[in-house]
Each structure stands twice: as C-alpha cells, then as structure tokens.
Design brief:
The protein has 413 residues and is of the alpha+beta class. It has 4 domains: 96 residues, Alpha-Beta Plaits (2-Layer Sandwich); 57 residues, MutS, DNA mismatch repair protein, domain I; 56 residues, 5' to 3' exonuclease, C-terminal subdomain (DNA polymerase, domain 1), CATH 1.10.150.20; 152 residues, DNA polymerase, Y-family, little finger domain (Dna Ligase, domain 1). 40% of the residues lie in helices and 19% in strands. It has a 5-stranded mixed beta sheet with strand order 5-6-1-7-8. The protein has a 4-stranded antiparallel beta sheet with strand order 9-12-10-11, with helices on both faces. Strands 3-2-4 form a 3-stranded mixed beta sheet. α10 packs across α11 and α13 runs antiparallel to α14. The longest helix has 22 residues.
C-alpha cells in the first residue's frame, strides 16, 4: 500500500485574526472574541497573541479573562465574515488537492499523496500554502504533516504560528497528554487517569483489549490513534455529496495599486479564472463578492446579487468594478484583490425576456469566453489575452490555476 501524506492545516487564532484584518489597530492591544461580550459569563472563543501572553485561554469565561487582563478588548463574533474567509482559504486548498476534509471553520485535512509529483515535493506544497495564506489572504497557518490524520493533527498542534511540523513516529508525541488525541475529552481523560494512563505513550503501550475493558469499543480506536494506525480516509466534496458553496481567486500584487486601470488589469485575470472554474463544474452564480486589502492591511468586503444567475467572467468583472467604485477610492493604495462567487446552482435561471429591457445574460459573450478557454487549453494560458491584460505584464503575468511556479512569488488564486 502506498504511503500517504496527510496535512492538517489549522488557521492561527482564526476569529481574532479575521477581526484584526478589518481593524489592524487590534494587533497592538490584547483582544479576544467572545460568545456574548455583553454577558460577562460568556466564554472566550479566540484571542490574539498579546492576549495569549497575558494568560488568556480559549473557552474560559469573560470574567476570568478580565481578571487576568483588565485592559482586554472584547469583540462580538462576526460569523458571516469568518465563514467568508473560511471558504476563501478552503478554495485555495482545492488548488493543491481535491481531497479536503473540513474540521470546523478553521481546520482542514488535506491528502496530498497524489499531488506531490505534480508540485515537486511535500516541502513545495507546504511552503506555497504558508506563503499564499499569509500574503494573499492575510491569515497564518500551522501545518502538521504525517501519514495519518491523527498524527497530522498533533503536528499542527505542535507547530508554531505560520510554520509546519512533521510527525514521523510515536516517539515524537509519546510525552503529550492523552487528551491531546482527537476525541479524548474531559471525561475520557479522567477515566484513563484513574488507571494510570496519562500520556499518548501510556495509551500506545497498553494492549487494545485492556483499553476496551476500560472504555468499551472506543478503546481499540484510541489504541490505533495513539500508535499511528489510523487509516481514516480524507473525504472530498464528491464523497460527501456536498455542493460547492463558492469559488474564488485572490491576488497580492507585486506593487501597490494607485489607480483603477491597474486594479482592472488584475481583476480581469481573476474573473477569467473564476468563470473558467465555474464552467468546469457546470455551475452558475448569483452573488458576487469583492475583497480588497490596502497597504495598511485594512480589509474591505463588498457583495452584490444579480437578478439572473450567470457563469460569465464579464458579469463578475463589471459588478466587481461597480462595487469598488461605489465603496472605495485610492487615498490609500491597494495591495491585494480577491473575487468570489456564491449562491451557486447547476441550472441556468429561466427568465422572461422583454423587448424594452437590455439583455441580462449574453450567449454571445459566453461563446467568446468559451472560445478563449479552448485556445488556452490547447496552446497555453498566455496564448491569448485581452489588450487590458497586456498593458502591464508585471501585474498580469500570473495564472491562478495552471502556472504553479508563480504561486511562491506573486500569484493569487
């Protein structure tokens, strides 16, 4: 059986990190996201590094946290924003493998076994993931690497922020407490301690039959987890019969953007990529999202919905430009652009046409876009481009899907 390579990717301080994207000043003070800031009995959901240094812990009450750090700033959670960034990151994972299994909003397993030969090495994949999440989205990861899901998760727990950790054997994690293993909660850990079992090594050294006597059938599972014998399958969308919720691309520019012409150059490439991927999946979108980040790391997200769903890159581009011009200016130059589409459907809307209204969905435009895709598939992604894209090759010379070598430099999704 071929040895697998599994990654566990965990977004660092996820809720707090998203809040700091929108409000960079929060990076300079201890802050936390709490379930109910107005109820001082609510719990801490996430905290930034400065709060962590003050001893603030996830899941402790707000009262406990404020006793440790009276100056702690409490933020109310914004789950819509967290979901948006979760999907943005997850869509990036899909560029490296189709085997992506979410574990909450901020964690995913990736099976990259079949991707290694394409990208060159495990190290190349890990380096690109860390770089792109940090520079294109503004978040950071901890990545665990192993041949099974359980050890990979332990690896991400041991990795520092924006780094990775290989786990190759039991000896590397033998010392960790037993409750570091997946699904070993408080009550299970208390039961194990009554039998003198405190660490992962203690579990691994016990016979599976003995653990079954203590914990029932789960004892055998725990034995396999501790010894790295977990053969758990990393699922993918098709396996779970789930629907793709959104498709996105983002890009950190090689230089600051000071005018709408530069903005449109990058936006054109991003919109072409998103529409191509939509048609590959046979999907149509109704909602368009634009996310921009300026050179002070301030983030703004905008969205609009269409009357009739579409799969055209031109519709994404036109609406993204409209959103930008209505909500932004260049008083502070921009550095990162992202576009996403959501409210996806596998069927085209049937709409009543009118002699007096402008056509909303252009079959002529679709034929043009499909023709361009066919030329690029046959002769290469740079074989044909719009004049706008050719105006500045420094800004436009990135190919979100095909040319993986640009990912480590300035390419976006």
């Amino acid at each position: 059986m071929r040895k697998r390579t599994i990654l566990h990717c965990d977004l660092n301080c996820f809720f707090a990190s998203v809040e700091m994207l929108y409000n960079p000043e929060l990076r300079n003070i201890p802050m936390a996201v709490a379930g109910d800031p107005e109820n001082r009995h609510g719990i801490i959901l996430a905290k930034n590094v400065l709060a962590k240094k003050k001893g603030i812990k996830t899941a402790e009450s707000i009262n406990e946290a404020l006793r440790k750090c009276p100056e702690l700033l409490i933020r109310k959670p914004d789950y819509n924003s967290y979901q948006y960034f979760s999907e943005l990151v997850r869509n990036l994972y899909y560029e490296f493998t189709d085997r992506v299994e979410p574990f909450g909003m901020d964690e995913c397993w990736l099976d990259i076994t079949e991707s290694i030969s394409y990208f060159g090495s495990v190290q190349n994949i890990v380096d690109q993931l860390l770089y792109r999440i940090r520079n294109e989205i503004g978040l950071t990861l901890s990545i665990g690497i192993a041949d099974n899901k359980i050890y990979a998760k332990l690896g991400s727990d041991l990795a520092t922020e924006d780094s990775f950790r290989y786990i190759n054997s039991l000896e590397e994690i033998r010392h960790m407490p037993a409750d570091a293993l997946l699904n070993v909660g408080y009550h299970t850990y208390e039961t194990l301690k009554t039998f003198g079992i405190y660490t992962i090594g203690d579990i691994a050294d016990k016979p599976a039959a003995y653990l079954n006597e203590i914990l029932g059938k789960y004892g055998n599972t725990l034995y396999c987890y501790a010894n790295g014998n977990d053969l758990g399958y990393v699922g993918k969308i098709d396996d779970e019969h789930e629907e793709i919720k959104s498709i996105s691309n983002s890009m950190t520019s090689v230089r600051d953007l000071y005018n709408i012409d530069d903005f449109k150059i990058i936006l054109t490439v991003l919109c072409d990529s998103v529409s191509t991927r939509l048609r590959e999946h046979g999907l149509y979108y109704r909602t368009i999202h634009l996310i921009v980040r300026n050179n002070k790391l301030e983030v703004r997200t905008m969205q609009t919905s269409l009357k009739e769903n579409s799969d055209l890159g031109k519709d994404i581009f036109d609406n993204a430009v409209m959103l930008f011009e209505r909500n932004c200016d260049f008083s502070i130059p921009y550095r990162s652009i992202g576009v996403a589409v959501s409210k996806l459907s596998s069927k085209k809307d049937i709409c009543q046409t009118s002699l007096f209204e402008k056509e909303t969905y252009s079959l002529k435009q679709k034929k043009q876009e499909v023709a361009l895709e066919q030329i690029r598939k046959r002769f290469g992604v740079n074989s044909i481009s719009s004049l706008r894209v050719l105006e500045d090759s420094d800004l436009s010379h990135f190919t979100p899907k095909e040319e993986k070598e640009y990912y480590s430099f300035h390419n976006g999704r």
